[in-house]
Design brief:
Layout lengths: L1 E5 L5 E7 L2 H4 L5 H15 L58 H17 L3 E4 L9 H10 L7 E5 L4 H7 L5 E5 L5 H6 L2 E5 L2 H9 L2
């Protein structure tokens, strides 16, 4: 499959880029995408939630009333979970939500996500470019020229570019990553995937069998 290459003015340059069918043309595996996205979101969780249980609440351990003859249920100290201000029963504790996935499955998930973008025509190829100084308005103009300024976009670069990153940082619907950092979540979360021309080969080398 071939896609046209656009310049920063939104015009076709006359060049085409050939996409590897082993990366962009596979039958998508929905379960692999689900697991990879689930792992990504789980890894973002801090897991620092905590409530005080019975042994951690400040209070007297004195038995607050006699065992029998009150007409109500027996009760121990004031820290009992049935009383206001008492400890919580089986409350949340700090934990690590991360889990492991095999590299082959993660690779399959990224290829599946890219194949979905190709099928729905949500991938655009732009020629390699640079921004001399960080300027958000210049990056907005690029998105407008490509007619994707109102869509959630993901720009994939070959290597880190500080000026492009700083120019896009204040835009809510725009994200910039390098090809080596791209995740299944980023691909699926973006409405349009922008690949600079040189990043196509990098992704091919990373994901091809």
């Amino acid at each position: 499959m071939e896609l046209a290459v656009y310049n920063l003015k939104g015009e076709e340059t006359g060049k085409n880029v050939s996409l590897n069918d082993d990366v962009y043309g596979i039958e998508p595996n929905d379960h692999a995408i689900y697991l990879d996205v689930k792992q990504h979101l789980a890894n973002l969780r801090q897991g620092t939630h905590k409530t005080r249980e019975r042994s951690e609440v400040a209070g007297s351990t004195k038995k607050i009333k006699r065992q029998k003859g009150t007409g109500t249920a027996r009760a121990g100290d004031i820290k009992s979970p049935i009383f206001r201000g008492g400890g919580r029963v089986f409350g949340p504790r700090p934990r690590d939500y991360s889990f492991k996935l095999n590299k082959k499955l993660k690779k399959l998930a990224r290829k599946s996500a890219l194949s979905y973008k190709v099928k729905t025509e949500k991938i655009r190829i732009v020629e390699d470019f640079n921004i001399s100084t960080p300027k958000t308005s210049e990056y907005i103009d690029i998105l407008k020229n490509l007619n994707i300024n109102e869509k959630k976009s993901l720009l994939v670069l070959t290597e880190q570019n500080k000026n492009i990153y700083l120019s896009s940082r204040n835009l809510q619907g725009a994200k910039v990553v390098t090809a080596s950092e791209i995740t299944t979540y980023d691909i699926m979360n973006a409405s349009v995937l922008l690949l600079v021309e040189s990043s196509v080969d990098v992704l091919d080398n990373m994901l091809s069998n």
